[in-house]
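Model it.
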Amino acid sequence: MFARRSLPLILAILTQSLAIGCSTTVLTPPKTVPVNGSVTFKGKPAAGVRVKFHPQFDIGTVKFIPYGETGADGKFLLNTGASGNGAPKGDYIVTLEMLRIEADPKDGLEAEVDRLQGGYNDPAKSNWKVTLEEGENVLDPFHIN
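Modeled.
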């Protein structure tokens, strides 16, 4: 008898929990400016390089890190919460990773491995600093030796 009286309460709690758990929060990207550039590796266009721009200013409550990935031509567009929308104006430190997928020979699990062995992915050690301004930002190429 106790279980029958409790059933509506239990159903109400479950329904509320589902509603809270399934609610979606829409993240609005910050205001951005267009940004494009390129990466070369040993003098040739570098495909598959992840380019990250680490803000050196308060970008807001959501800590977006603008990024792009180079195509076969070595060129990239930056994204900040939306495809190809660029990045907020300001000062950045740039890092690079040239990732490939490798399977672990022991367990067969795949993982991303940086072909550059982490030599360009630490913001504290990066020599690349960029300031993005109003209007289109076409960057000088990033050269990897």
